[in-house]
């Protein structure tokens, strides 16, 4: 029940990743946006969705995940509702460059739902024992991650049938329904439930341990953030997640523009390839979690990052359509499996501050979804059309750095267990 509730909450909130990707061309045509402006537009939901993961992930360690996740979804409702209002009142005739800042503002609010990831990760981690963390988090992340892919398919269909305004109205309705479902199904771990019933923290933790809970939080949000920040492995995991999940967010938003502008693909071909990327990368995260349980997160991450590197190199160097499709799906596989491996390692390295570590890793790591699209747009303005391909060199560099860091983590894991969790920067 708890896993189901958390997954539904994340699934609903995470759809904001594709808030602008499938509709970017509509705004480009009406507002005459430059490639860099398009990059910022598709990335802006990821800014709030990334940064808010840090405090909200830590907040879980003090109250449980239900209240933080509900608040994030409500903020997302405000953002999507604002976009709907803009389309009703301004689109298309009055939606010019002057409306661009307002569009970014509501996009940023809509992106708050993306931050549900770190809340749900912590919520799920406290429910499940160490031996099944990889599986549980893989199911949560994998199924929840399918949302952008489905949105990328459904949103254009709605636009084609009823118009752009209807797409955002239906999105708003779905998020509201998701809030109701999460409110009913979302459950905090035993220790939080017992404390809410009036039991002292120590007594609640003892009773929760008897019921099977293995991970317990620190006493405050600040303490859990600082505790996680003092451990150098947290920052290595941040970089890995910046590459894999931040990269996933960036490409989910950028790929429709890439396929249409560089390969002259039809609108529906671009949408289909983007949805395929998002769904494949999300679903492969589920077995990726099980592989991480079986073989270890570091070993699985090394293999996955190598696949990502090969895919990124193909897309950087090739201008052919078929090669680009192959490269895209290699990147998708590498990112999806690496995502699962990273969060398999978080509760092992930072068991006393899972929420704080999830906040840092999920928040700063996901910031790649905001940082990378403007870089890709800038490459196009700098190099011309070929910049659409050469921009993937960013992912080549990120994969190389992440491979090196994973090797360091793997070597450090062979050290005595007393340093595995508690060694500081």
Which helices and strands, and how do they pair?
Elements: H1 2-14, H2 24-31, H3 35-51, H4 53-63, H5 66-89, H6 100-110, H7 116-127, H8 133-144, H9 146-162, H10 164-185, H11 190-196, H12 201-210, H13 221-229, H14 232-262, H15 267-283, H16 285-295, H17 297-317, H18 321-349, H19 354-366, H20 368-383, H21 387-390, H22 393-413, H23 417-422
Helix pairs in contact: 1-5, 1-7, 1-8, 1-10, 3-6, 3-14, 3-19, 3-20, 4-5, 4-7, 4-13, 4-19, 5-6, 5-7, 5-10, 7-8, 7-19, 8-16, 8-18, 9-10, 9-15, 11-12, 13-19, 14-15, 14-18, 14-19, 14-20, 14-22, 15-18, 16-17, 16-18, 17-18, 17-22
Write structural notes for this entry.
With 425 residues, the protein is mainly α. The chain has one domain (2-422): Growth Hormone, Chain: A (Up-down Bundle). It has 23 helices and no strands. It has helices at 2-14, 24-31, 35-51, 53-63, 66-89, 100-110, 116-127, 133-144, 146-162, 164-185, 190-196, 201-210, 221-229, 232-262, 267-283, 285-295, 297-317, 321-349, 354-366, 368-383, 387-390, 393-413, 417-422. The radius of gyration is 21 Å and the shape is globular. Residues 416-425 have low confidence and may be disordered. The chain crosses the membrane at residues 36-56, 68-87, 99-122, 134-159, 165-185, 235-259, 265-283, 295-315, 321-342, 354-372, 392-412. One of its GO terms (biological process) is nitrate assimilation. Residues 2-414 form the Major facilitator superfamily (MFS) profile domain.
